[in-house]
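pasting for the record
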Amino acid sequence: MAGSSQLVKELRERTGAGILDCQKALTENNDDIEKAVDFLRQKGLAAALKKSGRETNQGLIHAYIHMGGKIGVLIEVNCETDFVARNEAFKSFVNDLALQVAAGKPSYVRREDIPASVIEKERSIYEGQAQAMLKPPAAWPKIVEGKLEKFYQESCLIEQFFIKDPAVTIKDLLAQKIALIGENMNIRRFTRYQLGEA
């Protein structure tokens, strides 16, 4: 029987998707749960952008301790419902984000969070470096912009490459999880502590 209640329950637990979406995915894929997961992911990726404006006032604050207590991370990730906040796929994603913060040492969630004064300071340093390279002045703006992009990739969590899969950025990973789970999600904030650092 297509979309049996046990299969629907299992698919819902794995993906966090709604009951009707799970039933449809199973029906379309002859009760093959792996194909149903892929079906929901493909459908969800297209819908992820549509979900981006929806309010996220549920979620988790997760504590992660790394290297035997030498690095600690507190991270808040929001979602739309408490059902998803309790879902194992969501919890695993939040843990992966905390691991990324521990290893990647970002300072900000996204580039919009960086104070203008910090960007101007970096820009000034890069302009000095561009001049010191003895390149023609016409090339300086391109050199500065390239160095700023690298700064964003290193400093912003959302722009870092995922340590478990360097072919994917955290932004891409977030879009995949929104698609898989079926709800809008937002990485709100984090704090990283390292033993001996101020």
